[in-house]
Amino acid sequence: QLQLVESGGGLVHSGGSLRLSCAASGVSLADYTIGWFRQAPGKERELVSCITKSGSTTDYAVSVLGRFTISRDNSKNTAYLQMNSLVPEDTANYLCAAMLFSVCGVTEKYDYWGQGTQVTVSP
Questions:
Q1: What is the bridge-based pairing of β-strands 58-60 and 117-122?
Q2: What are the CA-CA distances from residue 38 to residues 5, 34, 119 (Å)?
Q3: Please, which pLDDT band fits residue 22 given cuts at 50, 70 and 90?
Q4: Would you tell me how many other CB atoms lie within 10 Å of the CB of residue 4?
Q5: Per DSSP, which regions of the chain are E strands?
Q6: pLDDT of residue 118
Q7: If you average pLDDT over every residue of the chain, what do you get?
Q8: Which CA distances in Å does 102 have to 7, 30, 33, 118?
Q9: Up-side HSE of residue 39: CA atoms within 13 Å toward CB?
Q10: Which residues are registered as beta bridge partners of 79?
Q11: What is the pLDDT of residues 35-74, one digit of tens each?
Q12: Coil, helix or strand for 11?
């Protein structure tokens, strides 16, 4: 079975950067669409970004467009989320998710999830 483990979260100052990693094991990540979600206390979980199986197509939430970059390296069985120009509103638990379905914005089909990594951005 596919297992996902996130890493790279932490505490950063406003304007700083973090790179999150999503390492897969058990099954080749190349067979899966990858999404990064985030959930802040008291807020709904939202899709931040997603990437297709080959990496040819990406999508971003408007709130992070131009600041975050999603990527994947199937040879390393890992996906990434580069986060730049962070602001306190980005503070959340960030989760990596995967699905076999090929349209990355169909959020209800993500059925493999990591445990999440906390990102905290101080003012």
A1: unpaired
A2: 15, 13, 9
A3: very high
A4: 23
A5: 3-7, 10-13, 18-25, 33-39, 46-51, 58-60, 68-73, 78-83, 92-99, 112-113, 117-122
A6: 98
A7: 97
A8: 25, 11, 6, 27
A9: 9
A10: 22, 72
A11: 999 999 999 999 999 999 999 999 999 999 999 999 999 9
A12: strand
